[in-house]
């Protein structure tokens, strides 16, 4: 059954009155849950935040590809093709309208409509003829209203309505008589008058005046706050005070005031917890959103959300659907991998970044528990490495005190130029050791492509539960031989993967790039019994464990090449369900793969589980973390979380996670 559209919740942002609809399969007003809200940045970029039924942000904060430009503003959402998905209605400064047809949060079609002229502005969206598809409400600068009855992107009827005069503005759309067709709410610009037009398609069947709430009061939205199936009105005064009028048709049957501060404005109304009664979405002048879950006149929950900043404005709430999983799937005939639930945001660059320019996660997510039980999660970049901390993996917050700061020492042999803090291991929750990936960029005399990298590996230690790290005395694990600056391009050295402990040793993979052109790359295994000493690491060579060459020596280690381990290892864990070691590997084009081993040396054929690009979304650097694991999250059960770096269309980076499930087939 196609949902019908019966409530449009209107509000004013700037000079434009935006509107929002709720979907209902019957003639009731507020029968469907709004699963999120739509924001727009000052550069035009739209983004959806998805919510759960308790009023908390969850899932995927989805930023649509590309900014649309300052000339385009979102003026409403509606279901224009009757498929049950909200679509986005735009209008350009020159008057041109356009529709983005959505499937959840994915744009499936972009359609431009004819321009009625710059003196006409879209002021609402509703279902005026009751056909289950959204229509567009207009008002000209002289006060004349008009309705476009729509079928998808086609206006099937364009009708002008009587002009009440330029002092009257349409400020809301709702179903005041519960006939399944949208009606109009009016208010004068000075606040002295208000009225309702009951509509039958494009024909007003009754025009009723309402008692004015008084100067300073503006209609903020319409919704069904008492669940009786007819629209009510919520007003807001200049000091921030809100007031709900419970309506029976065009009659006010009662009212109640809600007190808040002057910096908070009502921006949308919707049923966020699915109880059939409207809730209130606010936004502060500093950008902070908040939700009041309402039971009639009583807020049962008042919760602020993360602040996206003053450049983001909430436009509308809508049923954008539950957070969708990314297509994680693999089946080699022995083990099948599938998804559980939807994609979730762990770190949202828009709201969580300590430094908007440089706080861009650029490594896999690694975690451990400190002595007090606090979970630490990293996914770092340079020059500052940050962590996320919280009581559990489900409630992490970004700490803007850097855990480690790149020294940017330009002496190559010091191996401390640009450093990424990577996998960590704690002994007691207080002392924590971490592997560090260091990059140095030589300038060559015959540089052709300006892409020259020298890699090295270091160790760092924290004595305060991961709050800060520093180099111990012997911090260098592997530093490549000096290079000839006449040989370019330069691309050689060492890289690493996650640590795991077994039998009194700590193991990790590392890659050797033994030549300036990157040829001869080998994947090797190394181990140590002493994490505090970088020079204690050994590599498997000829089946025996041999010390790594001294940092800066003239030769690379001739370590055994684990040729069956394809791609770049990001994560190394032990699966108690599969009774095997599991490695996630990353390849720029192939995406994320996984493989298993019984001994860390011989590996099964790698299976791709996530493409690097999924429905236009880009993912990097996977890791597996199980909330039920040990202190260093070295083990995973049947249903761990796959953590990924998500690259937004504008280049900013989030950390997201997707729960997956392993199933043994035979």
Describe the structure in your own words.
The chain is mainly beta and 666 residues long. 1% of the residues lie in helices and 52% in strands. It contains one helix and 51 strands. Strands 33, 34, 35, 36, 37, 38, 39, 40, 41 and 42 form a ten-stranded mixed β-sheet that branches. The chain has a six-stranded antiparallel β-sheet with strand order 27-28-51-50-48-47. It has a five-stranded mixed β-sheet with strand order 46-45-44-43-49, with no helix packed on it. A hairpin with an 8-residue loop joins strand 39 and strand 40. The longest helix has 4 residues. The N terminus is likely disordered.
Strand proportion? over 45%
Mean pLDDT: 85
Give helix % range.
Answer: under 10%
Q: Please report the distance between the alpha carbons of the first and last residues.
A: 41 Å
Mass-distribution shape: elongated
The main sheet comes to: 10 strands, mixed
Low-confidence stretches: 1-32
């Amino acid at each position: 059954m196609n949902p019908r559209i019966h409530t449009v919740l209107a509000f004013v942002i700037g000079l434009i009155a935006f509107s929002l609809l709720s979907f209902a399969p019957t003639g009731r007003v507020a029968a469907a849950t709004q699963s999120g809200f739509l924001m727009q940045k000052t550069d035009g970029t739209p983004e959806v935040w998805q919510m759960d039924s308790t009023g908390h942000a969850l899932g995927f904060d989805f930023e649509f590809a590309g900014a649309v430009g300052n000339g385009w503003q979102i003026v409403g959402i509606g279901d224009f093709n009757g498929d049950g998905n909200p679509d986005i209605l735009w209008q350009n400064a020159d008057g041109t309208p356009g529709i983005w047809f959505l499937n959840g949060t994915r744009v499936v079609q972009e359609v431009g409509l004819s321009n009625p002229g710059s003196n006409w502005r879209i002021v609402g969206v509703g279902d005026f003829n009751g056909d289950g598809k959204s229509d567009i409400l207009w008002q000209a600068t002289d006060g004349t209203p008009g309705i476009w009855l729509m079928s998808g992107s086609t206006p099937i009827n364009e009708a002008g309505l009587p002009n009440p005069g330029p002092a009257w503005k349409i400020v809301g759309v709702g179903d005041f008589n519960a006939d399944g067709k949208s009606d109009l709410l009016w208010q004068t610009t000075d606040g002295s008058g208000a009225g309702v037009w009951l509509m039958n398609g494009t024909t007003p069947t009754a025009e009723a005046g309402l008692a004015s709430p008084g100067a300073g009061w503006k209609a903020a939205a319409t919704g069904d706050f008492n669940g009786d199936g007819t629209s009510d009105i919520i007003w807001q005064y200049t000091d921030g005070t809100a007031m709900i009028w419970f309506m029976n048709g065009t009659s006010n049957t009662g009212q109640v005031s809600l007190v808040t501060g002057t910096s908070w404005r009502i921006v949308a109304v919707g049923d966020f917890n699915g109880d059939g009664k409207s809730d209130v979405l606010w936004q502060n002048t500093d950008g902070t959103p908040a939700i009041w879950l309402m039971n009639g006149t009583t807020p049962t929950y008042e919760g602020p959300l993360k602040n996206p900043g003053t450049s983001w404005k909430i436009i509308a709430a809508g049923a954008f659907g539950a957070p969708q999983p990314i297509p994680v799937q693999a089946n080699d005939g022995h083990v099948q991998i599938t998804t559980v639930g939807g994609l979730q945001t762990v770190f949202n660059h828009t709201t969580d970044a300590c430094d908007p320019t440089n706080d861009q996660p650029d490594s896999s997510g690694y975690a451990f528990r400190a002595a007090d039980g606090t979970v630490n999660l990293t996914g770092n970049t340079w020059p500052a490495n940050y962590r996320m901390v919280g009581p559990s993996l489900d409630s992490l917050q970004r700490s803007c005190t850097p855990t480690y700061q790149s020294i940017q020492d330009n002496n190559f042999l010091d191996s401390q130029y640009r450093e990424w803090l990577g996998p960590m291991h704690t002994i007691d929750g207080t002392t924590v050791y971490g592997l560090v990936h260091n990059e140095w960029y030589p300038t060559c005399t015959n540089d052709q492509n300006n892409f020259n990298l020298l890699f090295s590996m270091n160790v760092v230690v924290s004595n305060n539960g991961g709050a800060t790290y520093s180099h111990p005395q012997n911090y260098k694990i592997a530093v490549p031989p000096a290079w000839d600056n006449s040989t370019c391009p330069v691309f050689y050295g060492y890289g690493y993967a996650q640590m795991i402990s077994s039998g009194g040793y700590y193991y990790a993979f590392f890659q050797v790039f033994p030549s300036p052109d990157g040829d001869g790359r080998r994947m090797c295994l190394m181990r140590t019994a002493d994490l505090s000493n970088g020079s204690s690491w050994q590599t498997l060579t000829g089946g025996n464990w041999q010390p790594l060459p001294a940092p800066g020596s003239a030769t690379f280690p001739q370590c055994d090449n684990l040729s069956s381990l394809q791609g770049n290892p990001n994560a190394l864990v032990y699966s108690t369900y599969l009774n095997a070691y599991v490695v996630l590997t990353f390849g720029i084009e192939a995406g994320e793969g996984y493989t298993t081993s019984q001994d860390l040396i011989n590996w099964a054929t790698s299976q791709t589980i996530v493409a690097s690009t999924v429905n236009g979304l880009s993912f990097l650097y996977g890791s597996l973390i199980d909330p039920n694991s040990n202190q260093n999250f070295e083990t995973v059960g049947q249903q761990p979380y796959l953590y990924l770096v998500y690259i937004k269309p504008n280049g900013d980076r989030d950390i997201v996670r997707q729960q997956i499930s392993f199933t043994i087939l035979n």
